[in-house]
Amino acid sequence: MAARVQSSIQNGLWFLSSSALYSINSRGAPNLKNRLQFRHNLFPSSSKGALYCTCRSNNLPNGQREQLVASTEAFVLTTPLYYVNAPPHMGSAYTTIAADAIARFQRLSGKKVIFITGTDEHGEKIATAAAAHNSNPSEHCDVISQAYKALWNDLDISYDKFIRTTDPKHEAIVTEFYSRVLANGDIYRADYEGLYCVNCEEYKDEKELLDNNCCPMHLKPCVARKEDNYFFALSKYQKQLEETLMQNPDFVQPSFRLNEVQSWIRSGLRDFSISRASVDWGIRVPNDVKQTIYVWFDALLGYISALSEEEQASLQTAVSSGWPASLHLIGKDILRFHAVYWPAMLMSAGLSLPKMVFGHGFLTKDGLKMGKSLGNTLEPNDLVNRFGSDAVRYFFLREVEFGNDGDYSEDRFINIVNAHLANTIGNLLNRTLGLLKKNCQSTLAVDSIIAAEGNTFKDTVEKLVEKARIQYEDLSLSSACEAVLEIGNAGNLYMDEHAPWSLFKQGGASSETAAKDLVIILEAMRIIAIALSPITPNLSLRIYAQLGYSQDQFKTVTWGETKWGGLRGGQVMAQPKPVFARIENQTEGEDRREETKAGKKKERILHSKGVAEA
Ligand code: MSP
């Protein structure tokens, strides 16, 4: 249920807690009813945990002079809304894969999650792309946004909301938001002359450009533009933004990006134009049909409009369905829009700020950002078709430290995926189940808790899985994968040291010890399956099925079940079947084909020799 609070926004002091927004009541006691538990390490319960937002929206008309407070307990997570100038590439898929892993982890931890993604469909860039394909913008957007949905499906992205900025409910919310900001006195009309990068959809400062006025990101010349536009009074919010960041240094993550944001603000914020007279493909400015709303002033609102269930949405209904977002996941190139422009826009409209903005690094190819504009992209569909979604998800989340850049190489992809998923995890499970079948009719001899009595292996697993949990909470996805893989390494070591296959041969008490060893390894596999499921959901399901569980049991599993002791004596495992097929790299494949050819030749020689000898 949403709480709606009347207030004089000018004097109201609002706290964005580590979870939801809560107000100070007349006696000064915080109303904690709606508080969510969020990442304790990022929003500790100290004063650092509260994000102040002193909203000075005193010019809003009475009807709008209110703060909307979401009381939902949901963990609201967003990806950027992707431009539909071209189909998705691996760079855009990367943000979404990471977001999906975080969403799945939060669900496993018992949170209600609202995972928002979508497409950014207005503006000059999109209209130009449509024209280049001899299409009209609307049809073009339908095709490309469908391509995003199809890819998310292939990559097992479990999003809850897909917002398109051409959805009528979104357009209604943008118009309402614009009117609020206007009513607050933060929009004015002026002429603007400057250098514009169409790919960034942004006017650029000359000093940040390369030779020939080239945009440093897209390496294409910016064009001189002069426009009569509406402007948003960003400069008015400089002090409030500075204070907000000072009091909430965890608002921008990873922490090393905070300095950058603070220095942008410190160097002086310039008002920015929020309408385009020259662009037809967009949402009309209220009361001026000759202008359309600037794509960023439009798309950012998608994070709110996505929350609305209704087709005829209003800001109020959307906000009360889950705002503020817990986490905006974005690439570092759009940090300024999310950590400076967006909070100022929200302050102006009297709405609470998201709790965190995380700017990850770039996937690069030969050191350059992979992207549609540079044309150096990697085809995610191709990768998924060749290697499967688990391999793609695992590689990028394991290989690239989340927050930093990472270069792609196919050899590395194949080596990592084979070593970790096929060998460390897949082989361990397969050989353990093989031994269990041969010696114990695929049936567990005892409960895993009994099997591990007095055994330090259990402690090792418990420590590693707790480490993985903390890393997930910290959004350190690569380290989380590493901690889970360490369980697999420890399992392999345990098998090699205890050699249950020879204990079985000895029979008697040794055989009983060996049967317990198998239970121990399979219990570790069960824990690995759960702990790796945010990253490799299909592989985890296959492991679970091998351990004799149903798909429904897998679907309802929780992080709490990573506690040692799930497997029970008498439980029957499935017939051993490899859960992850090793990827053959080209050289290996060629070597093998050569070997096969050589083998056949040898066979033919022997055969003809035999025939001759007969
Ligand atoms: N439409 C805007 C976002 C509006 S959000 C309200 C936009 N779209 S985009 O399609 O250009 O980029 C979307 C996301 O993909 C950005 O976070 C961007 O950083 C990310 N990536 C695009 N190329 C990338 C790489 N090569 N590597 C990692 N992520 C990159 O910006």
From TrEMBL:
Annotated catalysed reactions: tRNA(Met) + L-methionine + ATP = L-methionyl-tRNA(Met) + AMP + diphosphate
Domain Methionyl-tRNA synthetase anticodon-binding: 453-588
InterPro entries: Anticodon_Met, Met-tRNA_synth, Met-tRNA_synth_2, Methionyl/Leucyl_tRNA_Synth, MetRS_core, Rossmann-like_a/b/a_fold, tRNAsynth_Ia_anticodon-bd
Record keywords, A-Z: Aminoacyl-tRNA synthetase, ATP-binding, Ligase, Nucleotide-binding, Protein biosynthesis
Region (Disordered): 583-614
Gene Ontology CC: chloroplast stroma; mitochondrion
CDD domains associated with the record: Anticodon_Ia_Met, MetRS_core
Composition-biased stretches (Basic and acidic residues): 589-598
Molecular function as annotated in GO: ATP binding; methionine-tRNA ligase activity
GO biological process: methionyl-tRNA aminoacylation
Family recorded in the similarity comment: Belongs to the class-I aminoacyl-tRNA synthetase family.
Name of the featured protein: methionine--tRNA ligase
Protein species of origin: Nyssa sinensis
